[in-house]
Amino acid sequence: MITLKGLVIREEPKGESSKLIYALTRERGVLSIFVRGGMKSGKYASATQLYVYSELCCEEKTNARGETQYYLNSAEPINMFFELRLDVYKSALAAYLTELLYYSRIEGARDKNDVLRLTLNTLYYINEGKKDRELLKSIFEFRLICDTGFRPNLIGCAKCYKYEDEIMYFNIRAGEMECSSCCRNKESLYGVLLDPKLLYIVRHIALTDFERLFAIKVSPKYQQQLTEFTERIVRYYFSDKFETLAFYRSL
Length: 251
Ligand SMILES: [Zn+2]
What we know:
Distance between the termini: 43 Å
Oligomer: single chain
Number of helices: 6
Mean pLDDT: 94
Number of domains: 2
Strand order of the largest sheet: 1-2-3-5-4
Bound molecules: zinc ion
C-alpha cells in the first residue's frame, strides 16, 4: 500500500458505478487510479472529484504486461478548491489547464514537484478570484512548458548575446531569440516580436524563482500580447487545438 498526494485532473467512468481518475502526484507524476464504486456518492466520492487535492492511499498491482495498476483504498481531501465548481469562468479555465496537464510530458520535468506546485498555486489563485485570470492562464501555460523540459533560451541574443534590443526576434521552433542586427529572417512563420517590456514579462515567467512567479502585474495591452504569445507556444508544443480552450474563449 502506498500513500500519495495528488490532484485529480481527469475522471473517466468505468462500468456502471466505478471510475478511473488521473492524479498529478508529487511522487510519481500523473497516475491513473481505479476507484471502485467511485461514480456513486460513496465514502471517497468528494476526495476523488475533479480538481480536488487529496491524500490517496492505493494498492499497487502489476498486470500480465508488467504495468503497475493502482486501486484506491481510501482518500482524504486536503484542498477542495470549492469555487472552481461554482463559477463557469473558473471551471472552464480549470478544465483547460488540467487538460494541458493531461497531455504534458510530466516525466520530462526535472522535478515533478515543480509542476504540482505550479498547478496548485494557479488553482489557488483562480479559486480565490483576486488575480487576473488571463495572467494566471498565461503564467501557467508558459511555465508548464518551461518546467517540463522545454524552457527556451531567453538570456540574450543567440548570436551576439545582447541582453535586449528595441525588438528581439524570438523563434518558437528554435526556442531562442536574436537581436535586430543578427536576425536574418524577420518574417519567420515561427517568429514572435518581443519589445523590452514583453521580453521582461516572458523572462519573468520562464526564469524567475517560483516564490516571485505570481508577483507580476501586466497592463491590458501587454496581457493581450502575452496571451497571443503563450497560446502560440501551446499550439506549437502540443500541436493541438484544445476544445476546453475554445469553450473558455466562447464564454
Ligand atoms: Zn545579436
